[in-house]
Amino acid sequence: MRKVRRLKDWPGAWWAYSYTLPPDRWPLRVPEVTYDLNRGRRDERRLRERIRDSVRIRRVTDGVPDGCWRLLAELPDGDIVGELRAHERSLDLLVGEDWGDQREVVLDGVLVTPGLRLLGLGRRLVTRLAEETRLAGPSAVCATAEFGGVDFLLACGYQLDGTRPATLRLRQP
Known about the structure:
Layout: E1 2-3, E2 33-34, H1 39-54, E3 56-59, E4 68-74, E5 80-90, H2 91-95, E6 103-112, H3 121-136, E7 140-143, H4 148-155
Parallel strand pairs: 6-7
Antiparallel strand pairs: 1-2, 3-4, 4-5, 5-6
């Protein structure tokens, strides 16, 4: 909050024609205090919204083996602002028994440019992977995450799977 000492201090005085109107012609009463107007934050928010709306998601197939996914979030000028990688694996090979060619997709990672996080780009990448794997036939998509990645994947619809082994680590002395 800040005090309104002059008409220029009040962002609501858009009607003041360069602040030259005499006070008796003001259509609105000028408040004693107003919110601090941070144009830099406003401009950054507008830029982020513009970027969010212009990003497109595409799948890269050149140089990527069959059964692997590489999805890119890119701006119209070609700048890459996010990436998702995943690969397919057979549960038959994992377990060592014939379960009838059951396959699943393993989400290897989702990356978004740090300045553009929290715009929904990661969620769009994960949603696109789910759509493409639904068409390809694997029965599930699984992922291992740590730190904020767990909350992110839970927000994207993933569920914790208690039937899978936990990640273990042995630290060498």
